[in-house]
Amino acid sequence: MVISLGRSFRFVAVLAVLMGLSSVATAQNQNQAGVIVDANGVLAMAYFNDANGQLTRQRMTAAKAALDPDVARSSKLRMISLTRLEKALAEAITTGAGASSEMRYLAGLTRIQYVFFYPDSGDVVLAGPAEGWFNDLSGRVIGLSTGRPVLELQDLVVALRTYRPGGDVKQVIGCSIDPTKEGLARMRQFVNSAKASFSSLNDAPAIVDGIRTSLGMQQVRILGVPARTHFAQVLLEADYRMKLIGIGAADHDFSKGRLALKSFAQLADAAAISRNALNRWWFMPDYQCVRLSGDQLAMELVGQGVKLVGEDEVVGADGQRMHTGKAGGASAKFTQSFTRKYAPLSQILPVYAQLRNLIDMAIVAAHIQKQDYYGKAGWELPVFGDEEQFPVEIYETPLQVESAVTAFAKQGRLVTPVGGGVHVEAELALESTNLLPDDDEAVEKARRQTQLDHLKSGQWWWD
Predict the structure, then answer these.
(1) Choice between 17 and 337, residue whose per-residue pLDDT is larger
(2) Which residues pair with 178 in a beta bridge?
(3) What is the distance of C-alpha 352 from the center of its chain?
(4) What is the pLDDT of residues 413-432, one digit of tens each?
(5) Which of 21, 75, 203, 211 could form an S-S bond across to 198 if both were Cys, CB 3.0 to 4.6 Å?
(6) With b meaning 16 or more CB within 10 Å and e meaning fewer, what string describes 81-94?
(7) Which DSSP helix (H) or strand (E) runs through 21?
(8) Is residue 333 classed exposed, middle or buried when 0-12, 13-18 and 19+ CB atoms within 10 A define those classes?
(9) Residues 6+ apart with CB under 8 A from 112
(10) How many CB atoms sit inside 10 A of residue 376's CB?
């Protein structure tokens, strides 16, 4: 949305009318941050100060001392039998010990590279790189060697329950943080009045405050997974931080340095944006990310698996949002650049590696369901599928966030991008048109080379 403030007024604000999360501390390191949800369901960003890294080093030292040396050792390819893990977890619950750290963090896996199925034994095996782990100051579990986020059993369980035995094949997983229709109508009224009321650079704070106040709280929606899960919180954090980057309101300028990721705010030409235009940006999988063996007993996940897309919208006088089916120049440039630089950005902001892992888990779960590994293995998720035995819905339900507004100088107009989220339909990655060929049978060979006959009783992971 654009406000024209007169020929003599050279100040223009791109007012990021997105979800605004108030920070509770000053950020020193981008990866020492996360989201919190209070008892009222209000989402907020939390930053943790570790200026000289001493607190982080102490946590790493303590983790190295506590972890079993075998599981803490870095591995290029670590295997986990999900069926054996569930049996081990059932025994641990029966004895009162509960899930061990190795179980909760899937023996240190940092990504799923392969899924193997062994019909004779009924083992469903995940394989990928792994390393020792520790909790950073934000509570995020990351690798001791690479700093990459470690996969968490609670997230995998959410994915498996979404694509459970005998469940619906088509699912939509995602989130959305959006202004209300009433808030958009109030904002449009304010914008119209602001054209006559404000005429100088000194008026910028009042404009920003007026936009924020008129919009009010924005609503959070979680799709396809329980809102009270870690899975849902990662979706929201990834969405939120992407939007802050897009509107130039992040606590770090990613356009500088090697990343050179320019925000929408830096790319936008205010003169080319209509007065009632809004922008939507949302994450979705790169659905051409699966290589399947000819016998359908092995699958490989390839590529970064995530892309950012966008669309322009128009807001009517009543606050109704209407799709246009296309993205303008600056919006398209921002989303395309974000996608190209997703991998290096995820090294700076681990939440994007987490988002990729969540999407991978959803695709893995959809694959297990589609190939009916459940039926072939006689696997009914007796523990993983039972919230009473393995609870994952243990977080506060996110309901709303405050609108965040930022301003900067540009061509004498006010521009307001808004909306977006995450949208995942994991089963689309398994459609024949998206599957990648296993021409040299490398995926099938990888499964055959993974041996299970050496496993001891109760052992569920190995290198």
Answers:
(1) 337
(2) 219
(3) 6
(4) 555 445 568 999 999 999 99
(5) 203
(6) bbbbbbebbbeeee
(7) none
(8) middle
(9) 126, 127, 128, 151, 301, 357, 360, 361, 364
(10) 14
Listed in sequence order, the DSSP H helices in 73-202 are 82-95, 101-104, 153-162, 181-197
User: CB under 8 Å to 294, separation ≥6 — which residues?
Assistant: 438, 441, 444
Question: In the block, which residue shows the tokens 């520790």?
Answer: 134
pLDDT over 80 (residue 28): no
Residue 274 pLDDT greater than 80, yes or no: no
Write the DSSP string, 394-446.
Answer: -SPPP-EEEEE------TTEEE----EEEEE-GGGGGSTTTPBP-TT-HHHHH
Query: How many angstroms separate the CA atoms of 180 and 156, rounded?
Result: 32
Closest CA relative to residue 366, chosen from 434, 428, 421, 305? 428
H or E stretch covering 243: helix 230-246
User: Is the pTM value of this prediction over 0.70?
Assistant: yes
Q: What is the rounded CA–CA span in Å between residue 450 and residue 90?
A: 25
DSSP string, 112-125: --EEEEETTTTEEE
Confidence band, pLDDT 50/70/90 cuts, at residue 123 = very high
Q: Which of residues 245 and 92 earns the better pLDDT score?
A: 92
300, two tokens: 């490989």
Residue 99 burial class via C-beta count within 10 angstroms: exposed 0-12, middle 13-18, buried 19 and up: middle
Cα separation, 340 vs 395, whole angstroms: 33
| 10, two tokens | 């050279």
Domain boundaries, the chain: 2-462
Angle ∠(334,29,53) on CA atoms, nearest 5:
155
Task: Report the half-sphere exposure of 427 (CA within 13 A, side-chain side).
Answer: 11
412: pLDDT strictly greater than 60: no
pLDDT tens digits for 346-389?
999 999 999 999 999 999 999 999 999 999 999 999 999 999 99
- Residue 311 has a pLDDT of 75
Do 136 and 318 form a contact (C-beta atoms < 8 A)? no
**Euclidean distance between CA atoms 342 and 192, whole angstroms:** 38
What pLDDT sits at residue 10?
Answer: 34
Tokens of residue 34, six digits: 């996360």
